[in-house]
Amino acid sequence: MPLIKDRREVDDIWAYVPDEADLSPGGCITVSLARFRSETELLLARNTEIGVRLEPADDPHELEEFLDRLTLIEIDFPKYTDGRGYSQAQLLRRRMGYEGELRAVGHVLRDQILYMNRSGFDAFETERAELPSVLDALEEFSAVYQPAADERVPVFRRRHGKD
Amino acid sequence: MYRYDEFDTRIVKERVEQFRGQVARRLSGELKEDEFKPLRLQNGVYLQLHAYMLRIAIPYGQLNPRQMRALAEIARKYDRGYGHFTTRQNIQFNWVALKDIPDVLADLADVEMHAIQTSGNCIRNVTSDHYAGATKDEVMDPRPWCEIIRQWSTFHPEFAFLPRKFKIAVTAAEHDRAAIKVHDIGLNMRRKDGEVGFEVHVGGGQGRTPHIAAKVSDFVPESELLDYLEAIMRVYNRFGRRDNKYKARIKILVSETGEEEFRKLVEDEFAAQRTAEKIALPQEEIDRIHAYFEPPKLAAKPANSESFEKAKTADAGFARWTRANLHPHKVDGYTTVTVSLKPMGVAAGDATDDQMDVMADLAESYGHDDIRVSHAQNVVLPHVALDDVYELYRKLDAAGLATPNEGLISDMIVCPGLDYCNLANARSIPVGMAIQEAFSDPDDQADIGKFHINISGCINACGHHHVGHVGILGVDRKGEEYYQITLGGRADEKAAIGQMAGPGLKADDVPVALKRLVDRYRELRSSKDETFIETFEREGMEPFKDAIYAGA
């Protein structure tokens, strides 16, 4: 599936391994939080990079102590109307200081990407949105009213010459 | 009132262009209806029974004459010559074509208005006391903080796909006219040791499962308000139910979690915020916004106006209207005027394009350019000199806008019902009109006194039936409309959910049953000063239930 990261289309070198499947010996993989929890030692001992995929009900705090060992966190949007992933992203970025890749997967649509980006996502796996339209979506507003994980300076500071 | 600066203007215009693009993609088929739906909803566009409906925000109920004229123009140009003021300080147009909506929004942007987040599962238009800044009984003016909340909640990236819609109301007065205890968040402004802060109520609401809000905090200082709101919103966004639309409001989370536990979740989330996460609104910004709400410069006048008193003696109709439709102003020699949108035979809250123009003109001539809309679906001119009231009254009267019924039995809240709404089970408007007919005598209405009848055409309770002194709920039973009566509800500081009186009545039986109910109240009241709700609270359900069903 097409992957847009840091405003460019990139190749996806990651594979999600479903819970019932065996872990492949090599390559970059992501697993569910449940699997990560039960096979933490094994997964962190691998020579490859490791990522975790969060579902909407998952508590991102469970990853807190491992954040510097994770290269990728995927947040799944099974339905784009389920907004829990936005809070997971804000918590990971702003509360816990996660600096690796934060990727939106699942039902990811052009018109949600701006809010996702503001909430801390830097990568979007999407079938439905071409790169040019995603870039447009990210530029639709020249000012924002509130601070978020993207660190754009809100208008309440810009109005007073603060940044 | 607040005026847009270059940032606000740009953001609203960019929003119009964004939506224009979305509508074009929808019309070309690139966007599917289910993908388009939340986008149009967050721009106030509903698909109703007959057409698209556009809901425009009137933030905390304040308009200037220019904005009112723009609404009149929209009614003329894009609709059928009228608009419908709602219970949440919005205005709805019922006959707008989807292809025209981007142009309507562009016209609105020109007068600093928008339809942003007037629908959808996001933070909706912030509502407040329609007498704010004018009423004697307020501790301070709540509007600056309403505006701060409006800006903070606009396009908040984390809270655009909540489990369900989310409504915030703010009051700063002794008497709660903003119904804060039946909102998702209700804020009551306080002063403590010289500091301004907010009493925070969470989880009130109506609909299928009405709840009075739980008090979550006695005092959140103003410097922490937005951070505290973020904590509540995040708890709701993460833990609110998403498995069942009817259990998705925050009131269900609060009641299922328990007040204590819910408070702890919020307090823990709030305590966990790092310094870098704090919103930290600069004091200059708080001051900047407050400066827009300086009271109008009202010339000093004596407390009593000779011309006003004289006109009352000479004109009995005027005298009656002044008894119902004026509210004490904080400045001597001035008053607050309610322009009733509840004349006989008109759907509650409807105003024609010409009437909107008249109200705009009168606000300019007599009202210091200030117009409010109330949650009871009326319009208010908050600052009028007593000397001018009679002239104002005559001009209102000429436009059909001087019905003397503010707060009286014919001043009902009525949802659009089956005549317009695709959720409704029963008609509301004709039932409301039949009740008005039954109590058409203005002297009789004045004698009955304060009396709130609220009518909803379905369980979603847009007509606020749960909090009417008398609530009327339309239900469908095997293809026939029935109306269930509840008694004892109220939306003010003593908020209560009405109790069901008994089995539903047929539409034709409702007015006569209410006649008997009102007669019983007149027999039972301890004096003319005791309102129906007070008599009900003293006497209980039994005598009124007997009266309602006496004919059965």
UniProtKB/TrEMBL annotation, chain A:
InterPro entries: UCP030820
Pfam families associated with the record: DUF934
Top-level taxon of the source organism: Bacteria
Protein name: DUF934 domain-containing protein
Organism encoding this protein: Henriciella marina
UniProtKB/TrEMBL annotation, chain B:
Pfam family, one: NIR_SIR
Superkingdom of origin: Bacteria
UniProt cross-references to InterPro entries, sorted A to Z: NIR_SIR_4Fe-4S, NiRdtase/SiRdtase_haem-b_fer, Nit/Sulf_reduc_fer-like_dom_sf, NO2/SO3_Rdtase_4Fe4S_dom, NO2/SO3_Rdtase_4Fe4S_sf
Domain Nitrite/Sulfite reductase ferredoxin-like: 52-110, 345-398
Keywords for this protein: 4Fe-4S, Heme, Iron, Iron-sulfur, Metal-binding, Oxidoreductase
Keyword Heme included in the entry's annotation: yes
The Nitrite/sulphite reductase 4Fe-4S domain, residue ranges: 119-271, 449-548
Protein name per Swiss-Prot or TrEMBL: Nitrite/sulfite reductase
Organism: Henriciella marina
